[in-house]
UniProtKB/TrEMBL annotation:
Keywords: FAD, Flavoprotein, Oxidoreductase, Signal. Residues 548-596 are annotated as: Disordered. This is Podospora anserina S mat+ genomic DNA chromosome 1, supercontig 3. Its cofactor is FAD. Residues 121-304 form the FAD-binding PCMH-type domain. It holds the Pfam family FAD_binding_4. Belongs to the oxygen-dependent FAD-linked oxidoreductase family. One of its GO terms (molecular function) is FAD binding. The lineage of its organism: Eukaryota, Fungi, Dikarya, Ascomycota, Pezizomycotina.
Length: 636
């Protein structure tokens, strides 16, 4: 929330609007303040009216979503407030609202539906283009460019670093871009001479995973896609897109053969291997809301596989045995490279001591340990269930003989389940992570040496990540979503995906979930910054702490620890900037110690503003953002 008095509002507004984007390529590279309400260049009501007319009435001016619960707001509705409170934790509410995001802190907690919290629209866009065609996106981009208005892009709001929202902005809402066409006999990209064999899907960037899986299942097909029903193509593919199927088929971005997109200059272009190749390379893995706004994707589909599924739970309920938890977690994750090579993939969670566990309400002190939901693709119906049980037998045997598990510690192995299709599996195990909280995540990619060479250091890292301002405040996700299919995919050099994906196995991240509490925000950010600092030029991972609190420096050779966001090679960035903006990239000063040569070309990141908005909220470290359950990529 922005606190200012007297002459400060104008100064604060200007500071918050100073764009790091490059201005014209003529003489000097001066920062330029974005236009905000109250400044002379802000569009008049007549200008907004003309934009709305050109959009056929699709320009929205939505109120803050929590305003119905605040008596001082024009949209206050005492009868509707209980319904909103019931829906606030549901993903479906937020992805159907034009400005709401899944996690409160990315709108700066400016209008929560809870009594005692303030409510204003300061954390949300002022106007929204409800786009249903590429033309609508184009008109919105050109209007924002003409009037120098901050531009953001929202799909479903499933964005872990908050790019779906920004104050004093115009938002392009691409949620309704749901075009669909199935190509059952190959696909020929525009301006290409060769027809690609196989089956392909052309879908709008607003298409969601549940709809895609359901419709493709009718053709006995599926895609390498996300694990949540509300995940949409736009942000998922631009982030690279990992999946349970990635260890077999590669990353989702590896399967894209053509993109329709709107550039920052307001042009509708087609990008593939035969035209606009630099943009095609950059969009696939360069991050949502970065180089362009994709409106259509064409990607390869696969025959839907049969899967063997297993939930494995290894926990201890006793606080005095917590000393075995982190070595246990380190050992299990050290086996992930060999398990992945053998065909296993899945989503694991490393549970710190005193984690509340609803399945065991009688354990009042909570539990700690390991949980994983994993699958293998069935080679034949007769291979089930030994195909998945046999992979875990040597791991469990080692645990039972090595770790001092008492009678009160136990291992629970659920009955394996066979699913005839990916849709059948997805319907039973899709992401059910609640929304309406604050989330503070950070993560790394780990390759085989990082997982296997030093289990003591790995155990100490897990221990450091587990410590927070309240019990179980940090959940460690360890997603086994890379492997042979990602490492050897023939398109692995044709996307801007971080190269570390091509050697890593594990996507590990730490999370803290809270309601609004400023003290917890500061403590959690400090913890993530200490334990997961940005990779250093001297190839040291600094800041890992032992259980005694002493700082350690772990020497590691890249790509043992990799960041998930690819920034692109300098020569490609220069060519891409010249193609899209006619401008020259330069390093920009950040509010942190290190500098980066690459900045987002289209949308100014909201998290950079928050260091100026409040004195109590330090800026997030430049960490890779990972998902809580099944989805990697950010939603545009």
């Amino acid at each position: 929330m922005i606190f200012s008095r007297g002459w400060l509002p104008g100064l604060t507004a200007c500071l918050l609007s100073c764009s790091p984007l490059l201005t014209s390529a003529s003489s000097s590279h001066k920062q330029q303040c974005k236009t905000i309400p109250g400044t002379p260049d802000w569009p008049s009501p007549a200008s907004w009216k003309r934009l709305n007319e050109s959009l056929a009435g699709r320009l929205l001016q939505p109120p803050p979503p929590g305003a119905v619960c605040h008596p001082g707001q024009p949209t206050y509705d005492a009868g509707e407030c209980p319904n909103l409170l019931a829906d606030w934790s549901k993903l479906d509410y937020h992805h159907t609202n034009p400005v709401s995001t899944y996690w409160n802190n990315w709108s700066n907690d400016t209008c929560l539906p809870y009594p005692g919290y303030p409510c204003s629209g300061q954390g949300y866009p002022l106007f929204v283009v409800n786009a249903t065609t590429a033309r609508h996106v184009q008109l919105g981009v050109r209007f924002a460019k003409k009037h120098n208005i901050r531009l953001v892009v929202k799909n479903t709001g499933h964005d872990f670093i908050g790019r779906s929202s920004a104050p004093n902005s115009l938002s392009i809402w691409v949620h309704s871009l749901k075009d669909w066409k199935y190509h059952g006999e190959g696909f020929r990209p525009k301006r290409c001479k060769t027809t690609l064999p196989g089956t392909y899907l052309t879908a709008g960037s607003g298409s969601q995973m549940w709809d895609i899986y359901t419709r493709l299942d009718e053709m006995n097909q599926t895609i390498v896609g996300g694990g949540g029903k509300t995940v949409a193509l736009g942000g998922y593919l631009t982030g690279g897109g990992h999946s349970l199927l990635s260890p077999y088929y590669g990353m989702a971005a590896d399967h894209v053969v053509e993109i329709e997109a709107v550039t920052p200059s307001g042009e509708v272009i087609t990008a593939n291997s035969c035209q606009n190749q630099d943009l095609f390379w950059a969009i696939l893995g360069g991050g949502g809301s970065t180089f362009a706004i994709p409106t259509l994707f064409t990607l390869k589909t696969h025959p839907t596989p049969s899967l063997s599924h297993l939930n494995i739970l290894i926990i201890t309920p006793l606080p005095n045995t917590s000393s075995i938890i982190f070595p246990l977690q380190a050992y299990i994750t050290s086996q992930f490279p060999s398990l992945s090579t053998s065909g296993l993939s899945g989503y694991a969670f490393l549970l710190p001591p005193s984690t509340p566990f609803p399945l065991f309400p009688n354990i009042t002190n909570g539990i700690g340990g390991f949980f994983m939901s994993c699958v293998v693709l069935q080679s034949s119906p007769s291979s089930f269930p030994q195909d998945i049980l046999s992979l875990w037998d040597p791991v469990l045997s080692h645990i039972n003989t090595t770790f001092p598990l008492s009678a009160n510690n136990f291992t629970t192995l659920t009955i394996p389940t066979s699913y005839p299709s990916f849709l059948a599996y997805f319907a039973a195990h899709h992401d059910t992570t609640p929304a309406g909280t604050n989330i503070l995540p950070g993560g790394r990619l780990l390759d085989a040496p990082a997982l296997t060479r030093n289990l003591t250091a790995l155990s100490e890292t897990y221990s450091s990540l587990s410590r927070g301002p309240q019990p179980a405040s940090s959940i460690i996700a360890a997603h086994l979503v890379s492997g042979p299919g990602v490492h050897t995919h023939p398109n692995r050099f044709k996307t801007s995906l971080l190269p570390s994906w091509r050697t890593s196995y594990l996507h590990v991240g730490a999370f803290s979930f809270h309601l609004s509490n400023h003290r917890w925000h500061c403590a959690d950010r400090g913890s993530l910054r200490r334990v997961l600092p940005p990779p250093q030029r001297n190839r040291k991972i600094r800041g890992l702490r032992t259980s005694a609190g002493k700082r350690r420096n772990h020497q590691t050779a890249r790509p043992g620890y990799g960041r998930v966001h690819e920034r692109g090679k300098p020569n490609r960035r220069k060519r891409l900037a010249a193609k899209t903006l006619g401008r020259k990239l330069r390093p920009t000063q950040t509010h942190q110690a290190h500098r980066r040569p690459h900045r987002r070309l289209l949308v100014h990141p909201l998290r950079r503003q928050r260091a100026l908005e409040t004195s109590w909220r330090p800026s997030l470290p430049r960490l890779t953002i990972v998902t809580y359950l099944h989805l990697m990529s950010q939603d545009a």
